[in-house]
Amino acid sequence: MKPTNKRWIVATLIFLATSINYLDRSVLGVAGPSMMKDLNMDKIQFGVLGSAFFWTYALMQIPVGVLVDKIGARAIYAIAIVWWSICSMLTGMVRSFGLLIGVRALMGIGESPAFPTNVRVISDWLPSRERGIANGLFTMGIAVGAGLTTPAVAWVVTTLGWETAFLLTGAIGVIWAGLWLFHFTNKPKDNKKVNAAELAHIISGDAAPQAAGPVVKIRWAQMLRSKNVWAILYGLFAQDYLLYLMLTWLPVYLVTERKMTLITAGFYAILPWVCASIGALLGGYLSDRMIKNGLSAVRARRRVMATGMIVSLAIIPAAFVGDQLSAVLLIAASLGGMMFSNGASWAIVSEIAPNGASGTLAGMQNFIGNIAGWIAPILTGFIATVTGSFISALVIAGLIGGAAAVIYLVLLKERKEFTPEPATTSSTEGALQ
């Protein structure tokens, strides 16, 4: 019997959800110049507004990761995307700075389940040897939503106003929620469109150390004693620092420092995100290929993650070159390297997490990663205001990324850190206590 391919429909759905997720986040950056003018915001205030989303988004990561592991992805994702879509639309309706802060903070709560849910879905629906490309596919959604849509969003902002841009992009998520509820079940075995051959493929040949065997119950202190866990926590922080700096400030940087019009900046901004899309898929594909060729999952992911973060150092020379095209090309190389690392960074969660706790570990990782979302927008605005330039801000992002490459190579190793202890509950999901 030929296997069905329902798992790839599911992977495509989470790619689309991630694209919508980052489209809704990125509208703020594209609308930034117009909003700053209309609402009389300076760079520091705009940095605070860009950061407000991450205050709640990061804090919610650990609890939503636990909820995903306990309740399942189907209901949580549908509720989450409707929540954040409404908040995105509200961003275009309110005018005061205080209300904007509140709406963006509420939007952070709505978007918080996305990445822990994505990781749990891939862990449940794909074998280890296919998780790299699946994680690469969904992380490619970051680049598609944040960058490839930029010219269209810039056109809407320029012709119809920044308020309309938030209303139109926010409405897309509601449509996705209907598709998700129609196609997705929490477990492949419960999906009538998954045949026996595909189900056997999903559960066979899994290289993850904790993929088989009993659910593991583990305390937070034991999780945080893991060197592997700390390596991936810092690594995502470094990746997200660069990502959220670009997400919040790239259009503003191109308009104010590189002297482009908003429409021109929108088209120039495509290139970094195209490279980011390619990097995400390529990193996932190569790490999967190395696993199929016999390399262990952790070693394969580590090679890709460290290589990508070395390439991300291109952001440093981007700060100093004089012409517009060279700056954009170097930014493109940096984002491409970061996303080359990013897909493997999410895939490795399933390889090192205790069985039944991949959503929780993904939430921990995303919590630490998104602390960068608190820092990068505000610090960048402050530096640009004080120094009159973005140079120092870009250099800092590069140095943080370079440190991640070193940490991956030094700390991330093949080791058995979590001792399986069968859960006393009859649940198949497990939990962290």
UniProtKB/TrEMBL annotation:
The keyword Transmembrane applies. Its main location: membrane. Keywords: Cell membrane, Membrane, Transmembrane, Transmembrane helix. Residues 10-416 form the Major facilitator superfamily (MFS) profile domain. The chain crosses the membrane at residues 45-68, 75-91, 97-115, 136-158, 164-182, 229-250, 262-283, 304-321, 327-349, 361-384, 390-411. Pfam families: MFS_1. The keyword Transmembrane helix applies. It is a multi-pass membrane protein. It is found in: Cell membrane. This is MFS transporter. It comes from Arthrobacter liuii.
